[in-house]
């Protein structure tokens, strides 16, 4: 396994693990649910963290994404890499648009999103994009 595949896998598994904790209603790394919601969701209309099903769905999707670059070569892997690249880049770049400031304006989410979440999504998109490019 390449260093890039390992880095992508670890990052996505860690983020997926956080979502799995939240699906289990374990508020970590911020013990207060409202404070955690403000830091990771940022949507004022939500009064609590997203429900268990939403958190679990994201956790499963991230675990699947983590394993994608190490799947055997073929059209299925290539299609998945294209999807992952587009989704991550759209999330990362989209987070800098004024639209996102209107949808999720709460602090500290807004600042964390600009400083950490968006660049991480762009990096994950570019990483998957490199695997996609190699597969073409």
Describe the structure.
The protein is 72% helix and 0% strand. It has 136 residues and is mainly alpha-helical. The relative contact order is 0.16. The chain is built from 6 helices and no strands.
Structural class: mainly alpha
Largest sheet: none
Helix/strand order, N-terminal first: HHHHHH
Number of strands: 0
Low-confidence stretches: none
User: What helical percentage do the residues reach?
Assistant: over 70%
Output mean pLDDT.
Answer: 96
Which radius of gyration do the C-alpha atoms yield? 16 Å
Overall outline: globular
- Fraction in beta strands: under 5%
Q: N- to C-terminal separation?
A: 19 Å
The number of helical runs is: 6
Brief write-up:
With 136 residues, the chain is mostly helical.
Please outline the helices and strands:
Layout: H1 3-23, H2 33-40, H3 52-67, H4 75-94, H5 98-103, H6 109-135
Helix pairs in contact: 1-3, 2-6, 4-6
List keywords for this structure.
single chain; about 140 residues; mainly alpha; about 70% helix
């Amino acid at each position: 396994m390449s260093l890039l595949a390992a880095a992508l896998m670890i990052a996505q598994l860690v983020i997926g693990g956080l979502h799995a904790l939240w699906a289990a209603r374990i508020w970590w790394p911020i013990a207060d649910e409202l404070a955690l919601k403000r830091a990771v969701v940022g949507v004022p209309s939500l009064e609590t963290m997203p429900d268990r099903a939403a958190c679990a769905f994201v956790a499963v999707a991230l675990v699947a994404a983590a394993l994608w670059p190490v799947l055997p070569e073929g059209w299925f892997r290539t299609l998945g890499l294209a999807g992952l690249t587009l989704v991550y880049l759209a999330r990362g770049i989209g987070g800098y648009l004024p639209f996102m400031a209107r949808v999720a304006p709460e602090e500290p989410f807004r600042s964390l999103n600009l400083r950490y979440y968006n660049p991480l999504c762009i990096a994950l998109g570019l990483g998957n994009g490199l695997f996609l490019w190699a597969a073409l």
